[in-house]
Design brief:
Layout lengths: L1 H28 L6 E5 L6 H17 L3 E5 L6 H9 L6 E6 L5 H4 L11 E10 L1 E6 L7 H9 L4 E5 L5 H13 L3 E5 L3 H10 L4 E5 H9 L3 E6 L26 E8 L4 H15 L2 H9 L3 E2 L4 H21 L6
Parallel strand pairs: 1-2, 1-3, 6-7, 6-8
Antiparallel strand pairs: 3-10, 4-10, 4-11, 5-8, 5-9
């Protein structure tokens, strides 16, 4: 009886080993089979595309394998991310995503993947505040002026890069926490938003440092507050929303690299290590800083915790404010 039990256990162990062997062997050989693909989940020219291209070359040198960037835009990053989930889980296809990844699950319940179960964050590349700004000739001289007008129901309106964007949700959260009321004016991207904001056609804009700072530097826009927990190194004289009397308020833009959750853990670990080395490269840090991005880095676990918190925070905002996408 004992001998039969031993044979059965041995057979199970050998079967399990046989099943795991190909995956283990592939992880050990990685990356030698083919070029590694970074799928930038937005079109060329935007911040996601820039982040992917900034890290691609040094990552290629670190891994000794070609790293190429492929743009797969659409549906606020859903189309490109779905392509990564559906790709072979062999460690040759990864996603570079934006903060919309943390918002999409609550705005689009019929997505073709589960953001928490089907993907594993490799690293949080960095964060950046949103900037609430106004035309230099505006009646709003300070953040307090805006809040006073909005609380007095003086028909205050603000523009963002689109319905359901981080800027939209951040203002919805601030309005709910403060009792302020305002009207959202969605634009189709940062270019059209800034054009109208600079011209004074929309009283307020809330956008990334990347799209807003050039107009602040030119003297055409006045920054009123940033949405990060601490002041931005790019705008050190601009107070945070929290400093303006709303402690704990935080709405950072962010960028991350993700993998399919089916990718072998050995590859996830190696990619995290190499990406952290890339992010510590002074030239890479300088280029990311030029995009208004404060480099973060860290472990896969830390990235997961950050992203899941973002999903939970904005899911509540979407529900509380009954926000729908077009």
């Amino acid at each position: 009886m004992q001998r039969r039990t031993f044979k059965t256990a041995l057979g199970c162990a050998l079967t399990l080993a046989a099943l795991c062997a190909p995956q283990w062997a592939a992880a050990q050989a990685w990356p030698t089979k083919q070029p590694i693909k970074l799928v930038a989940v937005f079109p060329p020219g935007g911040s996601v595309d820039q982040v992917a291209r900034i890290i691609a070359q040094p990552l290629s040198l670190a891994l000794g394998q070609s790293v190429i960037v492929e743009n797969r835009g659409g549906a606020s990053g859903v189309i490109g991310t779905a392509a990564v989930v559906q790709a072979p889980a062999d460690g040759y296809t990864f996603a570079v995503v934006f903060d919309t990844h943390g918002v999409n699950p609550s705005l689009n319940p019929s997505m073709p993947f589960d953001s928490k179960k089907d993907l594993v964050p490799l690293v949080l590349v960095g964060t950046s505040p949103m900037v609430l700004a106004t035309n230099v000739n505006s009646e709003y001289k300070t953040f307090a002026d805006v809040m006073a007008a909005a609380k007095a129901k003086k028909n205050v309106s603000f523009g963002t890069i689109g319905n359901g964007s981080l800027g939209h949700l951040a203002m919805a959260l601030l309005g709910r926490n403060s009792g302020a009321e305002w009207t959202h004016v969605p634009y189709k991207g940062g270019g059209p938003l800034m054009s109208d904001a600079v011209a004074g056609h929309v009283p307020l804009s809330i956008g990334s440092v990347f799209v807003t700072k050039p107009h602040i530097d030119s003297g055409r826009m006045r920054p009123l507050a940033v949405t990060s927990s601490k002041r931005s190194p790019d705008l050190p004289n601009v107070p945070t929303v929290a400093e303006n009397g709303y402690p704990g308020f935080e709405a950072p833009a962010w960028w991350a690299v993700l993998a399919s959750s089916k990718v072998p853990p050995e590859i996830v670990k190696r990619m995290n290590e190499e990406l952290n080395k890339v992010l510590k490269n002074p030239e890479v840090a300088k280029k990311l800083d030029a995009q208004g991005i404060d480099v973060t880095g860290g472990s896969s676990t830390q990235a997961s915790a950050f992203i899941e918190k973002q999903m939970d925070v904005w899911a509540k905002v979407v529900k509380d404010n009954n926000i729908k996408v077009d």
